[in-house]
Amino acid sequence: MRIAVLGTGSVGRAIAARTAELGHRVTIGTRDVATTRAGDHAAWMARHPEVGLATLPEAASAAELVVNATNGSASLPALTAAGAANLSGKVLLDIANPLDFGAGFPPSLTVHNTDSLAERIQREFPQAKVVKSLNTLTAELMVRPRQLADGEHTVFVSGDDAEAKRIVTGLLVSFGHTDVIDLGDLSTARGVEMVLPLWLRLYGRLDTATFNIKVVR
Amino acid sequence: MRIAVLGTGSVGRAIAARTAELGHRVTIGTRDVATTRAGDHAAWMARHPEVGLATLPEAASAAELVVNATNGSASLPALTAAGAANLSGKVLLDIANPLDFGAGFPPSLTVHNTDSLAERIQREFPQAKVVKSLNTLTAELMVRPRQLADGEHTVFVSGDDAEAKRIVTGLLVSFGHTDVIDLGDLSTARGVEMVLPLWLRLYGRLDTATFNIKVVR
Fold first, then answer.
1. Between vectors from CA A70 to CA A67 and to CA A75, what angle results, nearest 5°?
2. Which of A198, A199, A200 should we substitute to test contact with B (largest number of B Cβ atoms within 10 Å)?
3. Are strands B2-6 and B25-30 parallel, antiparallel or unpaired?
4. Residue B171: Cβ-neighbour burial (10 angstroms; 0-12, 13-18, 19+)
5. Which of A149, A197, A212 sits opposite B190 (nearest CB)?
6. What is the pLDDT of residue A39?
7. Cβ-proximal residues to A47 (8 Å cutoff; 6+ apart), any chain
8. What is the pLDDT of residues A36-65, one digit of tens each?
């Protein structure tokens, strides 16, 4: 698949490197290519020559699947810069969390309870097929789940388009996930985004980000 | 221990029956004893003669540990009826979820993100030692966790008083819980209350309430 990963943070890098390793053609999209090339992303790029770098609209337009790996507060502007036409008809895997660090750590959520970032993105880009997933675990576990308890833990998918969820689920399984629960329509993204307050407290308490929740049933 | 369980719903009944079975002296507190005796609670009482029934203030005043097993929307009025003086200095185990069914199923939360029901209760009753716990799983699993995966799943405690958390943790372990995570101060109750939107969707999806989350680490 041709995959565009929007965002150069730890999540974007993990997804880009892993999908490229699995044989996909991957381009990271960034707001300003020259600035990204000149910044601390340069060393990562040197280690990952198989991953391309392009502007947000260039990356999105060439892709079949677009990954939103931007910060939650930057997601709507970044996707707007990528261009609605370049997202139209495509699977848009949204991993972002709408965290508000305005009052320090732990952050609260800017969207919650009766709405979610994923639904906002879907409303703003109605032609995209938004699937929320992977936002409930740390970047390295997203793409290499078997490093923890041999993958015996759970990830979720939420979305209105069954085929888009099927494609994302296939990607998750290729990463090594063994327990992917389809929660239902995109409004179920409220539930997984609202896991973050618990996740953040566990992160503080367990002194590691290498943990995940398993739905035992 | 002398335990007062406020609330005659499935959570109150499960906690009352199990703690009585474990040898505690247990009284259920209800707003109107005569109405409760005459209603559908009568059959349950006949099966559990070891559990007393009293008014909210009577039950609370006689107890060392008070359990808030009321509906989240009724919790503050019920605790007010129980009386601040009767809660003073006592462990107040809060299991309630602040669910808002105003827009049907699934409910949203009336308190969330930068506050929690547990913190509201603590502010309203500053002399009580509020501990949030058990709100993330169904009533029967709260008190008999070993019936699912031999207890291989997680419960949380949140609270400002270390001794109160120790007492509640002891009670949880006596129920059969093997993995009790102390999340920290009472503001961490936001995290566990905000698990409910995910819980409710999983409940719809898995077609059973007999599930729980395990923090795999």
1. 95
2. A198
3. parallel
4. buried
5. A197
6. 87
7. none
8. 999 889 999 999 999 999 999 999 999 999
pLDDT, residue B53, reads 98
pLDDT of residue A81 exceeding 90: yes
Complex ipTM more than 0.90, yes or no: yes
Q: Which of A99, A132, A192, A213 should be substituted to probe chain B, the one whose Cβ sees the most B Cβ atoms within 10 Å? A: A213
User: Tokens representing B131?
Assistant: 């501990």
Q: Residue A212 has what pLDDT? A: 98
R_g over Cα of chain A: 16
> Does residue B210 contact residue B139 with C-beta atoms inside 8 Å?
no
CA distances from B116 to A16, B112, B154, B209 (A): 38, 6, 21, 23
To the nearest whole angstrom, how far is the Cα of A209 from the nearest Cα of chain B?
A: 9
Enter the DSSP assignment of B90.
Answer: S
- Nearest-CA neighbor of B79 among B46, B125, B36? B125
Judged against a pLDDT cut of 90, whether residue A14 lies above it is answered with: yes
CB-CB neighbors (< 8 A) of A133 in chain B: none
Contact assignment for A214 to B213 by CB distance below 8 Å:
yes
Q: Which domains does chain B have, with CATH numbers?
A: 2-206 (3.40.50.720)
User: Which amino acid would we find at residue B162?
Assistant: A
Residue A105 or residue A164, greater confidence: A164
pLDDT at B40: 87
| HSE-up of residue A60 (Cα within 13 Å, Cβ side) | 27
Q: pLDDT under 70 in chain B at which residues?
A: none
- How large is the greatest C-alpha to C-alpha distance in chain B, in angstroms? 50
CB A190 within 8 A of CB A114: yes
Check if B214 contacts A (Cβ < 8 Å): yes
* Phi-psi category of residue A17: left, alpha or beta, with phi > 0 → left and psi -120 to 50 → alpha: alpha
- In this prediction the pTM is 0.96
Q: Which of B156, B195, B216 sits opposite A148 (nearest CB)?
A: B216
